[in-house]
Design a protein that fits this description.
70% helix, mainly alpha, MetI-like fold, 293 residues
């Protein structure tokens, strides 16, 4: 006799319960979460895990291929690549998450105020958002980095300050729709302040698409940091990031003969960005009201 399938009464589930049920029923999302958690744990516990010092130079062991002593080989200065890779994960993941948090926070404030009050406030804030959206990001980022010097904090701030319009426009559209609902009329009748209406009623009901956008923005931020660092305008050596570890691949000899030097950070960028993209796609599908219940 076959097993009887457990009946799940989805009619009694809240929208959030249904969303998370769909989310973790997606195998790609589970794999993505595993990858993100794994890379995060490696980055957090890098001093415990790493068998060598982050900046330890061993000129007698330059360009060594992967071995029992150096799991992923060594670079042009004899530094252990595995050690630098997990320390670089700290920087790249921090840049991705923190820049996204800054951009999301600014965008949510602007979008919520513009959508709730409308009129002249909405027009002014959206024109400001249009100005920021029309700015060529890489040109401005490269200019700022050239003027003030590459740094972790500078990279985070540049991306955070320039990337908020997308979140603002998204949240504004959600709030314009929600503010006409009956629950908002009830909140007005009860004399609830505008601040509480926005924070307690509107934003929680519009948070799902913001979560999706933020997840995808983390992946974009990691790629952007890697591009800036590869150009020498992001994170400056000796602080390792996955992007500046790829700068050695500019040497044709390294590109042809020492594959482990550039393939390892390249793989980390690829797999992490893919994981965040899969998670974002999974969140988008999970919160889609058109999904079959």
């Amino acid at each position: 006799m076959g097993r009887k399938k457990k009946n799940v009464n989805i009619e009694n589930m809240s929208p959030w319960q249904l969303a998370f049920r769909r989310l973790f029923g997606n195998k790609l999302v589970i794999i993505a979460v595993f990858v993100i958690v794994l890379f995060t744990l490696l980055a957090v516990f890098a001093p415990v895990i790493s068998p060598h010092g982050r900046d330890t130079i061993d000129l007698l062991n330059r360009y060594q291929p992967p071995s029992a002593e150096h799991w992923l080989g060594t670079d042009d200065m004899g530094r252990d690549i595995f050690t630098r890779l997990i320390y670089a994960g700290r920087v790249s993941l921090s840049v991705g998450v923190l820049s996204t948090l800054i951009a999301t926070a600014i965008g949510m404030v602007v979008g919520a105020v513009a959508g709730f009050y409308g009129g002249i406030v909405d027009m002014i804030l959206m024109r400001i958002a249009d100005i920021f959206s029309s700015m060529p990001f890489y040109i401005i980022a490269i200019t700022i980095m050239a003027l003030f010097g590459p740094s972790v904090a500078g990279t985070i701030l540049v991306m955070g300050v320039l990337w908020w319009p997308g979140t603002a426009i998204l949240l504004r559209g959600q709030i314009l729709s929600l503010r006409e609902q009956e629950f908002m009329e009830a909140a007005t009748a009860l004399g609830i302040s505008d601040f509480k209406k926005i924070v307690r009623h509107l934003i929680p009901n519009a948070i799902a698409p913001i979560m999706v956008a933020a997840t995808l923005n983390v992946a974009n931020a990691i790629l952007t940091e890697s591009a800036l660092s590869y150009l020498g305008l992001g994170i400056r050596i000796p602080i390792p990031s996955w992007g500046n570890m790829l700068t050695l691949a500019q040497n044709m000899l390294v590109l042809k003969s020492y594959w482990w030097i550039w393939m390892c950070p390249g793989f980390c960028i690829f797999i992490t960005v893919m994981a965040f993209n899969f998670l974002g796609d999974g969140l988008r599908d999970a919160f889609d009201p058109k999904q079959d219940r």
